[in-house]
Design goal:
heterodimer; A: 109 residues; Glutaredoxin; two-stranded antiparallel ribbon; 5 helices; 19% strand; B: alpha+beta; three-stranded mixed beta sheet; 38% helix; 23% strand
């Protein structure tokens, strides 16, 4: 399976997926830390990929998502955005509902 | 990178935009106001700005870009809270 297929499968098979630098317990970059904090505050479990441990994903994902930086949050297969947008949605109080809706509705195969 | 270079790249990608750039080295904050953002989602808006600095981001000349993106009507409603304090990523 190509890296691109692996990425697409990851995105399709996790309702909430954060590509980040580091791990939630130990983010390796301020922007990833902000995204993790917002997701944890929403209180909904999320999957993550530490792109520092997956250089080929770090290299290929930007071309797939048309987003050059990390973190990148995908909900129901759709790019929500980077740290800016994640924190903005959280500040508006919209993140929790978005995440809860994602885990409530089964992913259609 | 220089502020002038970041400005030139964004103004070329989004002609006629109202642009504020601050920062230095490889980490910059921008506030972009353009009618090109009308009807676009936050992701679509930020993609437009990120596309302008694709090369320096890929080469590492630019490491982090913090941005706020507004349409002219949104901008008129919040001129004072436009400090680009958060960040989109690196």
């Amino acid at each position: 399976m190509s890296i691109e297929d692996t990425i697409r499968e990851q995105i399709a098979s996790h309702p909430i997926l954060l590509y980040m630098k580091g791990v939630p317990e130990m983010p390796q970059c301020g922007f990833s830390a902000k995204a993790v904090a917002a997701l944890q505050a929403a209180g909904v479990a999320f999957a993550y990929v530490n792109v520092l441990q997956a250089p080929s994903i770090r290299e290929k994902l930007p071309a797939i998502s048309q987003w050059p930086t990390f973190p990148q949050l995908f909900v129901k297969g759709e790019l929500i955005g980077g740290s800016d947008i994640i924190t903005e949605i959280a500040q508006k109080g919209e993140l929790k509902a978005l995440l809860e809706h994602a885990v409530a509705t089964p992913t259609t195969d | 990178m220089e502020i002038s270079e970041v400005s030139r790249l964004i103004e070329t990608e989004i002609p006629g935009c109202r642009l504020t750039v601050s920062g230095e080295g490889c980490s910059f904050s921008v506030v972009v106001v353009s009618d090109a953002f009308e009807g676009l989602t936050p992701v679509q808006r930020q993609r437009k700005v990120l596309a302008a600095v694709k090369e320096p981001l890929a080469s590492g000349a630019l490491h982090a870009l913090t941005m706020k993106v507004y349409t002219p009507s949104e901008w008129r409603q919040e001129p004072q809270r436009a400090e680009a304090s958060s960040g989109s990523g690196e």
